[in-house]
Design goal:
The protein is α+β, with helices and mostly antiparallel strands. The protein has 13 helices and 15 strands. The mean pLDDT is 95. GO terms for molecular function: transferase activity.
Length: 368
């Protein structure tokens, strides 16, 4: 049977990776309700109209076997002078016909809007899940980390895409990792009353998350592809964070009463999502409760230090607090979201902490 495409059919879009990869895959989907609002122009503040995002599903004999989004991030194009369209959520069976039709649909969508290139995966911006996995396919991803089987990169190359912007994700073994040592710089910060850790309880999570957004925008300003995240965009992504966060394992450090540095970690939700198949059902509360009491994996979503305080020993102070808190709370491993090869300082920090490589990823680009 030939492959057919459907546009904006969310049920088949959600089901596609489960059908394409099978029950034994390490792939983990976002919760169904979250994914639906992510790709909705009326709900997601990243988009101003339906003309900025769409999605396609490939079906063979009525069974969804692949999917893709096509979208534009206008703020990125404006800030960097690009004329780029994006693809995202490219999940597909090892089926050349399905992959070709999906990629062509995204490319045609971009051409009709005058874009001169297309790049992905972006799910849906550079500050969310990005990339296509290109190594270590036997290692389970953490929350907010991309997973794709080996054939996805091959299908992209067969359709004229080339890998760019290499990235690495890391994993830290907390059972053997030592917390950063306190040297003279770090002790000076600890002794300085101008520095103080902000209180973090479940009730204060929304406030601390907005502190984190300010630090994110300041500390990532010079990173490739970064665009400042608005209050609306940040809280759209993190609105349910207070229910999943463990307040013990995140920290915001203030300087003279203003947010100065932070590390935001959350328990790894992927085992819970796998158990529930990313759907809300009668057993979901029970699975969530069981996961809460048995989770041994955490993931570092991001860390940052305000530029005017960088190089003064602030980051090791915050990192030490977090590593000790993770150990005390019983976590055994800590995953880290992507770091680009161009970010030598962050890569050096990972090497110094003896973090081990988890996955290699690349973006894939094609001229239109």
């Amino acid at each position: 049977m030939p492959v057919t495409l459907r546009e904006r059919d969310f049920e088949s879009f959600f089901a596609a990776p489960f059908e394409a990869y099978g029950e034994n895959s390490l792939y983990v989907s976002p919760m169904k309700g979250d994914l639906k609002r992510f790709v909705s122009a009326t709900e997601n503040p990243l988009f101003s109209s339906d003309d900025e995002v769409t999605y396609f599903t490939a079906l063979r004999d009525g069974r969804p076997i692949g999917r893709i989004t096509a979208h534009v991030h206008g703020a990125s194009n404006t800030q960097y002078g690009w004329n780029r369209g994006y693809f995202g959520y490219f999940d597909c069976a090892d089926d050349a016909e399905a992959a070709g039709l999906l990629l062509k649909a995204a490319e045609d969508w971009g051409r009709r809007r005058g874009h001169t290139e297309i790049m992905g995966n972006f799910n849906l911006t550079a500050m969310q899940q990005i990339g296509v996995q290109t190594s270590a396919f036997d290692k389970a991803p953490y929350t907010d980390l991309i997973y794709s089987p080996p054939h996805i990169a091959r299908l992209l190359e067969e359709n004229g895409y080339r890998p760019e912007f290499p990235m690495t994700t890391f994993e830290l073994d907390l059972k053997t990792a030592a917390a950063p040592e306190i040297g003279p710089k770090q002790q000076a910060i600890l002794d300085n009353p101008d520095f103080a850790f902000a209180p973090l309880t479940r009730a204060l999570v929304p406030q601390r998350m907005d502190d984190a957004r300010l630090i994110l925008n300041a500390s990532f300003a010079q990173n490739p592809m970064f665009v400042p995240v608005s209050h609306e965009e940040f809280h759209f992504q993190a609105r349910d964070m207070k229910w999943v966060m463990d307040p013990r394992i995140s920290a915001v450090l203030n300087y003279r009463g203003e947010p100065a540095a932070c590390i935001i970690c959350i328990p790894d939700l992927n085992p819970f999502l796998r158990k529930t198949k990313s759907r809300i059902g009668l057993t979901t509360p029970w699975h969530f409760l069981m996961h809460k009491f048995t989770c041994k994996r955490a993931v570092l979503i991001f860390s940052g230090v305000r530029p005017d305080l960088q190089g003064q020993g602030v980051n090791p102070v915050v990192l030490r607090r977090i590593v000790l808190a993770l150990k005390a709370a019983g976590y055994e491993t800590l995953g880290n979201t992507w770091i680009g090869d161009s970010n030598k300082a962050s890569l050096a920090q990972k090497q110094k902490s003896n973090a081990r490589l988890l996955h290699r990823l690349h973006l894939f680009r094609k001229d239109l």
